[in-house]
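To: structure desk
From: M.T.
Subject: fold request, one chain
Message: Could you run this one when you get a chance? Sequence is below, nothing fancy, just the single chain.
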Amino acid sequence: MHINTEEIEKVLGYDFKNKDLLIQAFIHKSYLNENACSFEDNERLEFLGDAILNAIVTAYLFTQFSQMPEGKLSHFRAKLICTTSNAEYMQMLGLEMHLLKGKGEHLEVRGALSLTANLFEAIIGALFLDAGFEIAERFILQHFEKKMHEFLKKPDENFKALLQHYTQKNFNQKPTYVLQQEKGKEHQKEFFVQAFVDDQELGLGMGKNKKQAEQNAAENALENIAQIEEDYES
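Reply: Done. Structure tokens follow.
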């Protein structure tokens, strides 16, 4: 196992005091299923990074838009830290090729986008543990504030309609959406929805309500389809 921490740190603009945290951020659980390794996988760092990223973006929006109501702030936050956005932040860094994963992981339909987004959250978690909240916040804003404003300016798209157009054209079928899981208390629920075509899972989405989760699942499906077609063509 080899992870070039020096190269990664150069891109991040930060030298880790605890290199093991940085290494752990780049180890997917599928890698440990196939290789003996003394490190944990990055899922706990991903869990932590998700919470830290949420706090950073929430505070940023609260400060930037002092007169905006809570509902609109929540909508903006969802645009800035969804799977698609997190994956794009990671791709801007160009470090996803360093992720250690199992040989078959990239073959999953929803693999590429989800793996990339989760890696980004794991890096944020590692950075927070090594340097604290302020450094993690500074990293996010220095690297991605401009991109965040681009995301906020993008019009909302009806991804369910786009996915249905694609599947009817290519498979002569409409996609179906299955509620996979509900988590959280009544006033803080998270809904997880899968998008299917002909029993094939195309995408997975999470949202504060079922409608939002279905839209995110459709968006994830379109991203996965685009990735598969790109891989096939290459």
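Reply (cont.): The chain has two domains: 5-153, 159-233. Let me know if you need anything else for the meeting.
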